[in-house]
Amino acid sequence: MTQLTAKELQGRWFSQYYELNGLSVSQARNVIELKDNQFKVYQNEKATYEGTFTVGASRGHGEAPSEIALTYTKSANPLFLGGPRHGLVQLHGDTLKWVFGAVGHAAPAQLNTFAGSESVLSVYVKEGAKPDAPDRGTSKTVAVW
């Protein structure tokens, strides 16, 4: 693992899977767009969440996670406007996985959820990705601050 950069996250990502508090949940498909330091989440082709993100330096040496901050400026859920959401994100080829805790809580310790965790895990595939494409990247896990 190495430090993940904002440049590696750029693009449009289509939702594939959701998990809340350890249970798989069905949810309307959405699209996340990451451009420069801006993010937008589209549901039914309407931007329902927007904000900024920054990716910082590694929090240590070697394989230590990098820092990233998500700050909402628009949200269908007013609770998200209270501060950054902390979590973990992993990029593996054309697949993006991230897990977030509640706004104001610490980042989850692992890239999963469990009963009572108040965490949500989402899996996305990059726009234009081929389902059977060979892995073109390395796995990178970073903390979201």
Describe the structure.
By secondary structure, the protein is mainly β. It has one domain: Lipocalin. The chain contains 1 helix and 10 strands; from the N terminus they run H-E-E-E-E-E-E-E-E-E-E. The chain has a 9-stranded mixed barrel with strand order 1-3-4-5-6-10-7-8-9. A hairpin with a 2-residue loop joins strand 4 and strand 5. 26% of the residues are buried. The C terminus is likely disordered.
Order of SSEs, N→C?
A: HEEEEEEEEEE
Low-confidence stretches: 58-65, 133-145
Q: What is the total tally of β strands?
A: 10
How many strands, what sense, and barrel or not for the largest sheet?
A: 9 strands, mixed, barrel
Task: Indicate the CATH architecture.
Answer: Beta Barrel
The computed structural class is mainly beta
Beta-strand residue fraction: over 45%
Helix residue percentage? under 10%
Please tell me what the overall shape is. Answer: globular
Indicate the CATH class.
Mainly Beta
Q: Please state how the strands of the largest beta sheet are arranged side by side.
A: 1-3-4-5-6-10-7-8-9
CATH topology: Lipocalin
**What is the total domain count?**
1
